[in-house]
Amino acid sequence: MPYKMTEARREYNRLWRIRNPGYHKQHSSVWRKKNRLHKNEYNLAWRQGVTDTLRRLYGTSCRICGLSDEASLITDHIREDGGKERKTYGHHGWKSRAARNYQPDHFQTLCASCNQSKNFAHRRALKAGLTPKLRPFGNGGLAWEGFRDLGWLERQMATRNADLRARMDKLTRPNESKPENMDN
Questions:
Q1: What is the reported pLDDT for 178?
Q2: What's the CA gap between 134 and 78, in Å, rounded?
Q3: Distances (CA, A) of 71 to 29, 67, 68, 76, 143
Q4: pLDDT under 50 in the chain at which residues?
Q5: How much is the pLDDT for 96?
Q6: Domain boundaries of the chain, sorted by first residue
Q7: pTM tops 0.70
Q8: Could you give the CA distance from residue 148 to residue 139 in angstroms, rounded to a whole number?
Q9: Residue 64: its pLDDT value, please?
C-alpha cells in the first residue's frame, strides 16, 4: 500500500518550511559536497544505462554508413526536433523518455559525421526556402533529400574502413620496427 500523506501532516510540513526557510537548501548543498563522488558515480551509471538501452533499441551502428565505433555514435532526432525535446524534457530527460518509449519513426542511431551532414542538409534546404523531405538512406536510416551523393558516401566508407584496418593492424601486430637478433 503506497504511503498517503494526511492533510494535517501536509499542513504541518508547509508551516515548518515557512518557519525554517533555507533549511533544505543549506542541508542539501552540504550533502552534495560530502557525497560528490557518490553522486557523480550514480549519475554516470544512470547515463550509461540509458545509453545502453538506446543502443539496444535503436541499433549499435550508424544507420547511414554502418560505423559501429561506440564513441562516435549519437541518438538522432529524425525530424530535427531535438531542441524542442530538450526544452520540454531536459537534456537527459529526452534520452530516458526515448529509452522508455521505443519510437523508430522519431529516433535513429547515427555517427557524429552523418548526423552533422544530415543537419547541414536540413539547414541548407530551409535556408534555400525549400521544404525538406526525408528519404531512406544507407542501412535503413532516414536523411534529408540532398544529404550526400552515393559516390561521396562510398569514398568516405572506403577511406574510413582502410584507416580502421590500419589502426587495428598496428595494435594487433607485434612491434616490427625492432630488428631481430642476427647471427653474424
A1: 53
A2: 9
A3: 33, 10, 9, 15, 21
A4: 1, 149-150, 152-153, 184
A5: 85
A6: 50-172
A7: no
A8: 14
A9: 85
The three three-digit cell numbers of residue 79, written as one number:
525530424
Q: What is the pLDDT of residue 176?
A: 57
Q: For strand 134-137 and strand 141-144, is the pairing parallel, antiparallel, or unpaired?
A: antiparallel
- CA 65 from chain centre, in angstroms, equals 17
Pairing of strands 107-111, 134-137: unpaired
DSSP state of 144: E
How many whole angstroms separate alpha carbon 156 and alpha carbon 145?
Answer: 19
**Whose grid coordinates read 518557519?**
19
Strand partners, 114: none
Measured between alpha carbons, how far is 83 from 89 in angstroms, rounded to an integer? 10
| Cα distance between residue 79 and residue 63, in whole Å | 15
Nearest to 110 by CA among 64, 159, 174: 64
Classified as helix, coil or strand, 64 is coil
Which pLDDT score, from 0 to 100, does residue 73 have?
A: 92
- Please give the pLDDT value at position 1: 46
Of the candidates 160, 182, 83, the one whose C-alpha atom is nearest the C-alpha of residue 114 is: 160
In whole angstroms, how far apart are CA 91 and each of 30, 86, 127? Answer: 25, 5, 27
- Record the cell numbers describing residue 15, joined without a space: 508551516
Q: Which amino acid is at 129?
A: G
DSSP string for residues in 33-67: HHTHHHHHHHHHHHHHHHHHHHHHHH-SS-TTT--
